[in-house]
Amino acid sequence: MSAPVPAPVPSSAPSSVPAEVLARARARLLGAHSIAVSDPAPPGLVTASDGSRVWLLSPWPDGATPAVLEEYDIAPMPLDRPGQARRVLAAALRCCWPRLDEAPWPGERVPVGDVLEVYARMSRGDPELARRWATGELRRLHDTGWLLLDEEAATVRPGPRIALWPEDSLGSLRDLIRRLPRPPEPLPRVDEQAAPADERREPDVPHEPQEQGGPVEDAGE
Amino acid sequence: MSPTNDAASLDDVLVGEAVLGVYRQMFAALARDSGAVVDDPEMVDVAETLLAAFADAGEEGLSREQMRYVCRRYPAEVFENRLRVLKGLGAIREVFPKPNQLRYRASFTSVVGLMFIRRMMLDGGQSEMHRLLALEQLNVADPRMTVEQARAGAEGLARAFRLWSVELVTLTNGTIEELREQAPKLWGTEEILQRAERLHGAILRRWPQLDRTCTDLRAAIYAYGDASRRAAARLSDSAGTTRNLTLLPPETWRTFARTASREELAAVLEGFVFDAPAPWHEPAAVVTAVQDGPRATPPRPAPPRPSVPDPGLSEDASSDDAAAERLRVVAEQVLRGRDRVAVEEVLDQDWTAARRLLADLSSAHLHPELPYRLVWSDGLDSRPDGSPTWLSPGVFERTGT
After folding, report:
1. Interface touch B274/A9, C-beta < 8 Å
2. CA dihedral sign, ordered B90, B93, B95, B101
3. What is the ipTM of this complex?
């Protein structure tokens, strides 16, 4: 879905509408949009900065998140294939969030191929098909501000909306991401010692299949 | 066919009376009183209920009480009024025209008239027009049709079309709500026009002398087409601005949605501002999604585990060497360099110590890695004063290695 044209709101009544109302309307209309760090951030909005840009997000009252909708038995915004989108998000976080003790935002910029590889290993079935599904979900997550996808450079990094996750809700997510398959090693290293790394990885895996961290890491180093 | 004037006039009167009778019977269902038309549809319902009951009753007809019974839903005065009017107009009459007649029968013409009226009430004059055109088409093809009948039919149709177009023009200039109410009259206009033109062509081909009448009919058809198109244009114009989706039939909206360009579709919501899509992915929801998702490998059933915490397999395994070493030391102490020693020599202590030693020797015998063996003979020595009071002679020996 392409973003609606923002023309009518800002140009219609620049004088009568207060600035923060206008900024809030623009933030809701455009989703997560960014301004330069040097620009003044309008009041009443949550900001997420990665050092060079500031993303403006509309906040919820009392520090709540839309997760409270579930407590009140209100249906959230309908989403096509929410499970798949969240699995792709988890795969992306597996790659973009290497130091799990820190906050996921701003995270790191990683190649899209790594995320697709992780997702293909997570899911069953044709890996090529899984990659294609995941590509579509990456684009949708980019449109909704959960990931920042640079299609030309083929890189992805966490989106500003991830900065809205409260710290105390991240515990189970950290555990989960620790258990996900590791992203493939960067290409140059694989070129140098592809064969020994593979040979050493093979015998390790059957012994301790549950510990996905250790043996692969050793093999890569 | 009486040639006299009196008889002729009497015949005329009779003919006129017959026509009037048909009219009265036809519209008896609509008549509120003998002179006027009903103003309440419920009264038509009474007539219909009665006629249906008569149809069910068969040739016996119905008595007055039976009629009252089938009309029990309606108030008494309404029923009385209807019965009086229907009787007065001849829709319901006595089985035999006698005073104090108790049984009644219904007129067939009234039922047909009622069916016609119902149909007109249901879908207006348009479908009736379809029927008339189809009937007329059949008549024109009929070889028994005369020129006069054809002329009368064409004139009637021309009159109907003229009146119809007048009505449409009035509607077009009236309010849009009125036009919307009458909008069903506008649907399917093309088909009516085609039928009418086909009929017109058929009449003109068969009776070229009717060209003047046919010109009138043609003009009336065209006038109707123009008026209908203008009314439809006004309707669709206002439909485009009012967003009242009932102004046009659903098919029209569907066609528009399918064929319109993106700009036309977007113009409907011009001036509206929408929130950007912002679905929320809670961390817990992400965890649930991954756990519920299809796995790369099908989950294997876990092997059964004791419910109490396991003290640990590794401890036993590591202490096995130590135990074997201890047993080896014990065995070497017993053997003292010899290859074999009799068990009774070894067990010459008190039984408390001896049984511990015997247990160790048995363990050394049973241990798969230790090269010792206990061999017992079949005898049994009884030693009343010894420490083990009975004893089988046996040998503890070093095995081959």
Report:
1. no
2. negative
3. 0.73
Residue A53 main-chain phi, psi, to 5 deg: -125, 155
Question: Chains A, B: CB contacts under 8 A, how many?
Answer: 103
Verify that A23 and A42 share a domain, yes or no: yes
What is the structure's pLDDT at A135? 93
Res B152: pLDDT: 86
CA dist B348 and A93 (Å) reads 76
Same domain assignment for residues A175 and A89: yes
Q: Which residues contact A108 (CB under 8 A, 6 or more apart)?
A: A95, A96, A97, A98, A157
Whether residues A166 and A127 fall in one domain: yes
User: How many structural domains compose chain A?
Assistant: 3
For chain A, say whether B271 makes contact (Cβ under 8 Å).
Answer: yes
Q: Is the pTM of this model over 0.90?
A: no
By CB atoms closer than 10 A (0-12, 13-18, 19+), residue A107 is buried
B95-118 burial, b at 16+ Cβ within 10 Å, e below that, comes to eeeeeeeeebbbbebbbebbeebe
**Domain extent at residue A205:** 191-221
Set of chain A residues whose Cβ sits within 8 Å of the Cβ of B279:
76-77, 79, 82, 85, 144
Q: Which stretches of chain B score pLDDT less than 70?
A: 1-43, 97, 99, 101, 120-126, 182-188, 239-247, 296-300, 306, 309-320, 401
Q: What letter would DSSP give residue B208? A: G
Q: Coil, strand or helix: which one is B316?
A: helix
- Same domain? A33 vs A125: no
pLDDT confidence tier of residue A132, bands split at 50, 70 and 90 = very high
Taking the CA atoms of residue A98, residue A101, residue A102 and residue A105 in that order, the dihedral angle to the nearest 10 degrees is: 60
Per-residue model confidence as pLDDT tens digits over A83-99? 899 999 999 999 999 88
Do A104 and A198 belong to one domain?
A: no
Q: Are residues A34 and A125 in the same domain?
A: no
Q: Partners of B391 in the beta sheet? A: B381
**Per-residue b or e along B79-90, where b marks 16 or more CB atoms closer than 10 Å to that residue's CB:** bebbbebbeebe
CB nearest to B277's CB, from A31, A86, A89 = A31
Which has the closest alpha carbon to B71: B35, B97, B44, B99? B44
State residue B170's pLDDT score: 80
B interface mutation test: which of A86, A96, A124, A126 has the most B CBs within 10 A? A86
How confident is the model over B363-375, as pLDDT tens digits?
Answer: 989 888 888 988 8
B309 touching A (Cβ < 8 Å) = no
**What are the φ and ψ backbone dihedral angles of A3, each rounded to 5 degrees?**
-70, 140
